[in-house]
Task: structure prediction
Amino acid sequence: MTILLLCREQDLGKEPAGYVRAFRRRDIRVVFLAEDTPANADLQELVARCPEPPQLILHPEQKFLPKGLHVSPFPTAILQADPYTYTHRRVRWAMLFDYVLLLHQGFEEVFRQAGHPRPLTLPHAVDAEYFTGPEEERTFEVSSVGSVDGKNYRMRRAVLGSLAQEFRMNDWVRAHSYEELAAVYRKTKVIVNIGRDDYPVDVSLRFAEAMAAGALFVTLQPSELESLGFIKGEHFVGFHEREEIAPLVRHYLNDEPARRRITEAARERILREHTYDIRAETLLRSLGIDAGKKFAPARQWPEARAHLMYLDYFAAHRNLDCAASELRVIAGQSLRGAVQGLALLARAFVRISLSSATQQFGRARRDFK
Result:
């Protein structure tokens, strides 16, 4: 079996990389795009480079969107790692694909109501091989790995900075590779999760990684963990106010039996139900049941409407050359579509121009200081 991944291997994110490793453990061949592949390459040319016809074409939300994707003779899927952000756009782009793979609970109905018949929830998972082995000495009392820069992480920065004054912590400011993350978490007693300021219920990958590593997971309530079947007090510890965090951490650092009871139950459940091997098996089982059936709504659309989605995708990813190329195709098919496409292209141009001006202004201010 062969899967064509619409990205270059060096650009793999954490989640797609987990799936790739799981596919390879099942002796599935994964084909990546070449270094010089244009963002709007012809799909037929990409397929021709595969040693055999692919049983799945998987899009990991990167800059590539090949021509002819919406009429692919092979099943296609898009991996939606962060449906919380720009949901309306992600819904539109998903219409070009046969499957929408959602890494968060609660979004299937959004896509169904918009007209996509095949959303599939595959929640965040872990690569078990990074989290198994002899028990490590837990030298860190508290750890956190994840983004701390930007306007959506103000609370995270404040909380972690405060905890660092009291507890032995990892270097929570710097970025970590997956291997480094696993090594840190396996040496940690408590993982404190502070979600994004705009989506505080999001537990991202951190819940699975922390639990698989045998660390106590402490997170804001309510969270999406309950929808995954995890129980507060049995698999994780929850808080409602920021002021509760440090006392909870102190309590469970001092009560090792209670901490171990929770971490062992959580770890067992993660490794039983939430690994990339299990997610890959679920996806492949769905493909087998559907037996090659195609679901993408765009397969039934007029060409101009489908190309408008390509234009929208490229414009959102600031690829104005590819967006303009789609506009020329649309203009030859639909006047109304051309007007819509021109508006999308114009808005993208304005956003890029404003962003560039803001960056230049920021650099000038720093230079002046």
Q: What stands out?
A: The first strand starts at residue 2 and ends at 5. Residues 363-369 have pLDDT under 50 and may be disordered.
